[in-house]
């Protein structure tokens, strides 16, 4: 039985996770920290010291930062935050940038003296910005999560300080597949109408922009041109196109999931495509999106915000579960779909945010749908086969262990390769 407490927790989780962001969330977090530091300093800085973790380098190195005229990297994100950032907008910190500021951002990125360091003792997610102006200084550290400011200093005096992992968030340990499905069956749609409705509008808008524009490797358009145009192909193409646009400078916002816009797109767009193409009700679509979003959060919680395990694998599996629910799947159907999907593509690595993320999204959606089709055909991957365990929750814990613990050294080696460190 779904208790009132669990119901309220699940509503809170959706509201905490499904928030808007413009651009890739790691460089946007840099822009947010920079804008906050400039606000604390109270004037335009003359020089800066930027300290970031290897995982921030990985995810900011190649992706285009919106409103910068095609610039990418840490310096571009920092410049955008300093020149045009509005810290109160958090992950939409650079959503309101004038044409005049575009040129200012480029000039700032190319000429401003900023030292960039990658401390060995940094948290996996860690950004520290120190600004100097005359005899004044300001420091802002953001760690553990994209908007989690843990320390603020001005002139060496500490204005705010708290432990990295002390921010109050709704308990994710209560998430499990059985209760997620009970929640989806019973949720009052008015309780999720705003948060899910916004996700539908934002994420479909950027998917459509990706298909109509020219972004990166144009994975979404390539899929539509290259394969038989059925509902599965359309679902993959739309999800990939959203990432095409987002990774390559599109200035439309997305609704993220587990701190990632790509994960937000992946777990939502295929479900929406299926619902609309099949003419299913809005009520059914909203409930299915509750399933896909919450299962994605459930999978990502044990893995962590950033790792060597590609996050869209979780989101693609979540999307398949949402589609299965949309089509009337039972707990057994959805649990086996999830297990099959995780068994198929849990080896995909995260080597940073970039144009090729769209192709990984297409692969993750395909694997999720294959996992669903397998069980519909009476086939499944059994406990004892590789990392698969008995029961879907044990398999999820197995994947969490693989990604969070087993792939730490892989993550370090990926970062070394990307930075060309021997």
Number of domains: 2
Q: In total, how many beta strands?
A: 8
Q: How much helical structure, as a percent, in the residues? A: 55-70%
Q: Averaging pLDDT over every residue, what do you get?
A: 94
Top-tier CATH class of the largest domain: Mainly Alpha
Q: What is the CATH third-level topology name of the largest domain? A: 2-methylcitrate dehydratase PrpD
- Low-confidence segments, ≥5 residues, pLDDT <50? none
What string, H for helix and E for strand, traces the elements in order? HEHEHHHEEEEEHHHHEHHHHHHH
Could you say what the CATH architecture of the largest domain is?
Orthogonal Bundle
Could you explain the architecture of this structure?
The radius of gyration is 21 Å and the shape is globular. Strand 4 and strand 5 form a beta hairpin. It has 2 domains: 139 residues, 60s Ribosomal Protein L30, Chain: A (2-Layer Sandwich); 244 residues, 2-methylcitrate dehydratase PrpD (Orthogonal Bundle). It is built from 16 helices and 8 strands. It has 422 residues and is α+β, with helices and mostly antiparallel strands. Strands 3-2-4-5-6-7 form a 6-stranded mixed sheet. The longest helix has 24 residues. The mean pLDDT is 94. Helix 12 crosses helix 14. 56% of the residues lie in helices and 10% in strands.
Topology summary:
Layout: H1 4-17, E1 20-22, H2 25-41, E2 47-52, H3 54-60, H4 74-84, H5 99-111, E3 114-117, E4 126-133, E5 136-143, E6 149-154, E7 157-161, H6 177-186, H7 189-212, H8 219-226, H9 231-247, E8 253-255, H10 261-277, H11 282-303, H12 311-326, H13 331-345, H14 357-376, H15 392-406, H16 408-418
Parallel strand pairs: 2-3
Antiparallel strand pairs: 1-8, 2-4, 4-5, 5-6, 6-7
């Amino acid at each position: 039985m779904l208790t009132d407490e669990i119901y309220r927790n699940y509503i809170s989780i959706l509201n905490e996770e499904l928030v808007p962001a413009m651009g890739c969330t790691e460089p946007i977090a840099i822009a947010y920290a920079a804008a906050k530091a400039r606000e604390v300093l109270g004037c335009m800085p003359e020089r800066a010291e930027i300290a970031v973790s290897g995982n921030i380098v990985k995810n900011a190195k190649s992706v285009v930062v919106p409103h910068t005229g095609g610039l990418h990297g840490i310096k571009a994100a920092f410049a955008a935050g300093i020149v045009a950032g509005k810290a109160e907008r958090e992950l939409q910190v650079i959503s309101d940038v004038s044409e005049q500021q575009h040129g200012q951002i480029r000039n700032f990125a190319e000429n401003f003296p900023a030292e960039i360091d990658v401390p060995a003792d940094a948290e996996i997610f860690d950004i520290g910005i120190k600004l100097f102006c005359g005899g004044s200084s300001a420091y802002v550290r953001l760690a553990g999560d994209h908007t989690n400011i843990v320390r603020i200093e001005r002139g060496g005096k500490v204005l705010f300080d708290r432990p990295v992992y002390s921010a109050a968030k709704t308990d994710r340990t209560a998430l499990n597949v059985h209760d997620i499905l009970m929640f989806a069956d019973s949720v009052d749609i008015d309780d999720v109408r705003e948060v899910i409705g916004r996700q539908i509008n934002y994420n479909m808008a950027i998917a459509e922009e990706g298909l109509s524009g020219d972004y990166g490797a144009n994975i979404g358009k390539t899929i539509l041109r290259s394969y038989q145009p059925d509902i599965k192909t359309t679902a993959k193409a739309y999800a990939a196109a959203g990432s095409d646009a987002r990774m390559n400078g599109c200035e439309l916002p997305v609704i993220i999931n587990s701190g990632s816009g790509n994960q937000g797109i992946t777990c939502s767009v295929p479900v929406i495509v299926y619902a609309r193409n099949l003419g299913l009700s809005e009520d059914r679509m909203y409930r299915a999106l509750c399933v896909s979003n919450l299962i994605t959060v459930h999978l990502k919680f044990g893995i962590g915000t950033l790792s060597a395990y590609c996050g869209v694998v979780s989101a693609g599996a979540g999307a398949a579960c949402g589609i299965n629910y949309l089509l009337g799947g039972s707990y057994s159907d959805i649990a086996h779909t999830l297990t099959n999907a995780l068994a198929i593509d849990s080896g995909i690595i995260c080597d940073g945010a970039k144009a090729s993320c769209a192709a990984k999204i297409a692969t993750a959606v395909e694997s999720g749908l294959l996992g669903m089709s397998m069980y519909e055909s009476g086939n499944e991957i059994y406990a004892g086969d590789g990392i698969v365990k008995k029961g879907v929750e044990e398999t999820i814990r197995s994947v969490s262990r693989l990604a969070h613990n087993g792939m730490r050294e892989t993550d370090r080696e990926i970062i070394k390769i990307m930075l060309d460190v021997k």
